[in-house]
Amino acid sequence: MESVLQCCGAARKQPKNDAMRSDALYNSIKQTIEKLREDPEDEQQQKKAERAFDKHLDVVFDVLKEEVRVPVPPAPNQPALVPPVQDSDRDWMNSVGEQRCTPREKAKPANLKQLVQIVTKAKESGTRVRAIGSGHAFSDIARTDDAILVNPILLNDIEEVDLGALREEARGETLINVQAGITLRLLKQELDDRGLALINMGGYDAQTISGTFATGTHGSGISFGPLSSFARSVVLVTETGAVYQIEKTNGITDPEKFSGQINGIEVTLKQDDEWFNTISTSMGCMGIAYSYIIAVTPAYSLRELRSSTTWNDIKKSLTPNLWNPIPPIIADNDHFELVLNPYNRWFRHACVKVERKRLVGNVPQQGERQDWFEALLQQISLQSAPDLVNFLNSIPFLSPLIIDAAIMTLVYEEPYIDKSFNIFSLGSANEIKAMALELHCDAKQTVPTIDKLLGVLRDKVFEAPWFLAGPIGIRWIASSDGFLAPQSGRMTCSMELTMLVGVKTGRELARYVKERMCEKDSASVRVHWGLDLDFVTGEDVKAWYPHFDRWQAVYTQLNSTGMFNNKFTDRIGISMPRSA
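Predicted structure:
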């Protein structure tokens, strides 16, 4: 919140008379907020608060700064806002502590041989196996009780690709072999040291590469698919202990030059589009990934410019008739995003337009960038963030006002230039305990879908009232060949609805949004696998994905014994009968 305060001109020296007036104003605003804490639906005090935000934002944030530091007893069993330390006890939990399970055993293989031994042992004992990563999925994808949980953290090496084993046409790409447990944070730095970079990234870099691929994680840019679209080959340990190198039918490897082994372990080359397009978004249901060959690119920088607009203005450039094939406002940028206040203030939805263009090489850094979440929390520090949650719980009406003020700190006149991964990353916001629901629609339907979403959120405010704790992040992504990728078969617009863990109505609001926004047909809005908060059903999946039957056909081959069944497969209704 420090940058919000600085942006609003807080902490200025004033003459004595001005100081007296300032004290009176401060006390008046504080009294308004105290009355709202007592009765959050007091319309008279709400109007006073709105006027204060519009005319005296610096004083309002002085008051809020003090309020969020007032100790408030946490609710019973309320989790800390800082992500938990993994493996601190026998149980496993995800990064925000919202998913938890009790495994039979935790394993950390350091090589392919050990990984095969783990799976073979599980087969002999009839034990289920599940790979876990950084726990960034907010759904039950990794949740598996009484199983061997495989943490790939030690599988984090990068190796050169054997060019002699590739088809001639595959040698034009820059390829690198990475083990499945490497995090994007480590990978981006290792690549940078080699003068290389990931082709694209999302905003969170603590995920393992296997986790990003398995769930359809994406960045922004209508020319770029989900991160799994950069994979050219995956080495997978299956339920029998057999190891496959899986590629497209006309994959990068020349079968006649394939060695048939990795570090002394027999490997079968499987070049099959059905398998590859299934495995690319597998949700970990078909085996344990050991490594990937991925396409990368020479290191590059990004030039980012952020400007203020409104939804009513910007949507004129995104209407369905302009998708022929792509609206100029998106086509003219390598990466285009919007940060949108979901709530209407003074007859407009405040919006920040984010335009990014690629620059060859590592151009010297210029300027700096502020994230809305960082702006909101910087002043109070990560350890004090639960106070903000308590504050928003007590006065939910202030959420739209705070969002409006916070996202306006994102706007700056001069461009920000930096290495690609520094611009893509959310920075310190990665360390905050937040979760999200992410919706995906056909890009051509961007405007009607967002209009509907804003209406759904508006309706709930009048009915409940329930509020989001942050803005909506809007990005555009290329179509994917992955059968169950959220971007499967269509250019996609994603809408990420951010929630602070602990804000009481967050999950209920997300469920309401999902139910109102999603239909039972292939044109429906879809939900990101790692950000579905366990709301997606088997009926949804069958309706949304035209190639679900093709995905399931491969799944039944690779999980024939039910070794990879878990809470997620139970929820979707695809768990296989367990072998004795």
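Summary: The CA atoms of residues 285 and 521 lie 24 Å apart.
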